[in-house]
Amino acid sequence: MVATAGFGFGTLLITAFDPTLFTGESCLSDSFYGNFAGHGVFRPDQACLDTATSFLASGTVIPVKEGAQELVWIEEQSVEESLKAGVASFGDTLEEVLSTITRTRGTYDLGREQEQVLALPTSDYELLYHGDSFALLSLSAESARVIDTVIPPFWKSILLPNGPVSFVPVPSDAVQRVKELLEEAKFDPTVASIVSNISVPQMKNDITWLTGEDGNSGIVSRHSFSSGSRSAAQWLSDRFEDTGATCEFKDFLPGFAPNVVCRYPSTVNTTATVLLSAHYDSRGSFGSTRAPGGDDDGSGTISLLSIARTIKRKGITFKSNVELVAFAGEEQGLLGSRAYAREMRDKDANLTLMIQADMLAYHAPGEPAQLGLPASIGTPEVAQLVSNLSAIYSPELQVGFTSACCSDHQSFHEQGFASTQVFERAGPIADPMYHNSGDLSEREGYDLEQVKSIAKVQFATLLLAAGFDLPDSSA
Ligand SMILES: *[C@@H]1O[C@H](CO)[C@@H](O)[C@H](O)[C@H]1NC(C)=O
Ligand SMILES: *[C@@H]1O[C@H](CO)[C@@H](O)[C@H](O)[C@H]1NC(C)=O
Ligand SMILES: *[C@@H]1O[C@H](CO)[C@@H](O)[C@H](O)[C@H]1NC(C)=O
Ligand SMILES: *[C@@H]1O[C@H](CO)[C@@H](O)[C@H](O)[C@H]1NC(C)=O
Ligand SMILES: [Zn+2]
């Protein structure tokens, strides 16, 4: 995928996403551009388009004119209704959202504080297709990469790839392996002792470094194009390597901060690999340049780090290969994970399962600690395994489903890897500081005990799925 090449022109077909569109003789498999909030976007050639109309119940055909540069899908996020009322201006209707794209640089009242905001380098865009809560836009390459910074907080943007992507169903033997793990998911006092060793004070130190709240890191934003994201990448790599991992920076698109891929070797000669991930990039909204990302997704990032630090303290070794991955480019449409998942598919990686941790810290004051699992995207068997391990090792969590959708596990799921996400709430997003300059760790509702409870579940899943040993002295 070369972002600077532009989208070109052709015909798009948008239809309700359905995995059966990829089975059998369907020509659509080769022209898939993504699943956006249940809308499958395809770019079929004329012959395929003619055939598709014979088996599709409904669909919309959109001509993309020559000269179109990049295509970006924007959509409203699943948030509590009460949150929307708190956002003073912009963002109630698609028209208002689009107005944030065309307005000029200046100082605006964003509800919380007066802030100088950025504007897009160019306000030229074309509205190709839309509903009340989503739109497909064509706009310049430069604007396409930073549109996330100017739109309202409860809307997200996804850059369409410049070539077709795969949709590989998760193979039945991979699902079977997860079902076997579920059968093995029984209380183990050694695992309970290990996972409870995760340190909340250490998490506090880590999160305040990432948000800049500690005054030492100098981080103002971890947006994928910011200097803060580069500092964060280096710091994360150093911290993971302190725990015995070997880390690699993986660039995926020009200008973006890299994915940070950290690996622990297996003690057994096997290709089997277990992957836990989070995204370390952040974003603001309405053009604000501050994006501390304490919850989104500093919380998921420190959960990985808390697990790594405990691996080191306890001297744990794994029977399988283990990867802890901090992705970048999530906020522009899962771009870092899309590249890494494709790389893993290309080498036919033997991934037992992967779990993305995205937003673990917030619950509304008065609500119990929770664990949300994805209602739509992911492998139900992995979610079931996580749910059962939560009941065993973090019974304090209320487990349920969330409509908050689509983090980096989607990239892996679409490449046929068994995957799921862990989230902070058994319901829609309720964090009032979502994609906001106020997403700090020192505030009401930000709960590191909940992060620890969810990290325990991620860790227990890792220990079960990878297999492990402790040094002889602690046996
Ligand atoms: C998983 O948890 C559910 C709910 O507690 C339980 O009914 C089921 O037996 C568990 N599955 C396994 C394989 O233990
Ligand atoms: C974690 O384990 C280490 C070494 O076994 C121990 O010194 C430390 O007190 C434990 N910390 C917590 C928070 O349980
Ligand atoms: C690991 O297993 C592979 C495949 O079974 C084999 O080719 C390779 O020689 C083994 N490596 C070692 C170090 O035993
Ligand atoms: C993948 O790993 C599993 C263990 O989880 C192993 O049984 C299987 O042989 C491996 N598959 C390949 C293709 O190496
Ligand atoms: Zn996120």
TrEMBL record:
InterPro entries recorded: M28_fam, Peptidase_M28
Coiled-coil zones: none
Enzyme class: hydrolase
The Peptidase M28 domain, residue ranges: 259-443
Signal peptide residue numbers: 1-16
PANTHER family in UniProt: METALLOPEPTIDASE M28 FAMILY MEMBER, PEPTIDASE M28 DOMAIN-CONTAINING PROTEIN
Recorded family membership: Belongs to the peptidase M28 family. M28B subfamily.
Protein name: Peptide hydrolase
Source lineage: Eukaryota, Fungi, Dikarya, Basidiomycota, Agaricomycotina
